[in-house]
Amino acid sequence: MRISELSRRSGVSTATIKYYLREGLLPPGRATAATQAEYGESHVRRLRLIRALIGVRGLTVSAAKDVLDTISEGNSDTHELLGLVFGVWPAGGGKDEGGEEEDHSGVTALVSEMGWKVSEHNPARQVITQTLHTLRSLGMDYDWHDLVPYAELAEKTAVLDLDQLQGPDDPLEKAERAMLLTFLLEPALLALRRLAQEAESTIRHRG
Amino acid sequence: MRISELSRRSGVSTATIKYYLREGLLPPGRATAATQAEYGESHVRRLRLIRALIGVRGLTVSAAKDVLDTISEGNSDTHELLGLVFGVWPAGGGKDEGGEEEDHSGVTALVSEMGWKVSEHNPARQVITQTLHTLRSLGMDYDWHDLVPYAELAEKTAVLDLDQLQGPDDPLEKAERAMLLTFLLEPALLALRRLAQEAESTIRHRG
Predict the structure, then answer these.
(1) Of A8, A47, A112, B68, which residue has the fewest beta carbons closer than 10 angstroms?
(2) What's the domain of life for this entry (chains A, B) (predicted)?
(3) CB contact under 8 A, B78 and A201
């Protein structure tokens, strides 16, 4: 297909497609004339993934390129792929944050209690530490033990999540699916909790 | 206590406390001299709640005042209180959004499948409609049926949430707790899902 068709199919403007071509995020099409090229389905899929990495996950163009390069190097190992896509480890070599000495003992205890094998670099650890810190700074008597029942439910959620990634073998497609289902579902999962809270409150207080 | 002590205890600056007093968010202290007043524990608690409504839930000062007024009118009905705090119904009378004709049939079907009794005005409905729309616009084959297992887990989460609100009888305290535990836990719940995804991926792909 021509670039105009690729733009229509992917929902990405031709100007942006040309920019991605220049930056090497998108491999060149098959040249059919001095100023024309032919693009295929793999370009459509790759554009979708680029859009998800930049638009949904909020990566910069250069970070998105690192992720894409690593995926494209024939890396179809699902575990590595998910780690890359979710930012468990940074693409293109570890640039450790370091510095800030924070007390992660709460998260460490929680992870150990759950028997989870997770990387020290998983940024989710930081989020949990921060939340526990904030709750305590607001005078709440709250620590990692209180999160254990929530962690058990998160475990069941993760099983549902990973079941939905069984399908596609193509690494680009799997990466796209993993990202969309993880990131785009986040607001919906929180919204389901709100609805369920109201439903539960109706049962308890209007039963 | 004096205003300086109130500031220290609540973590809110005296300038901000004076602003809240002027705007009527905080009731005046007991006058002890022409320019001095004595504040009590109820002021500390109310300041905390104001901070949560504005800082955590992101309400404007005037919307926070509406919520506080409604709570203070002796409204200690927990169901009403939670509805107010979570924004299920707007404080100070229904200002319906209306207008935008959107197709909420997916959410309606989901809510009915779950047997949930929830208000038509719960803003979480909109979030779910939007998510389903976005996933479909990105070419995913995804509808409300796919959310049912997640809704079942959300139901269990809501039971945990409401169990934690059994304690306090004071409506201000209950409102504060409901808000902190709902809004501040949100990033932590998503982070738990990420950690659990990595743990589950480790089991499946490195087992």
Answers:
(1) A112
(2) Bacteria
(3) yes
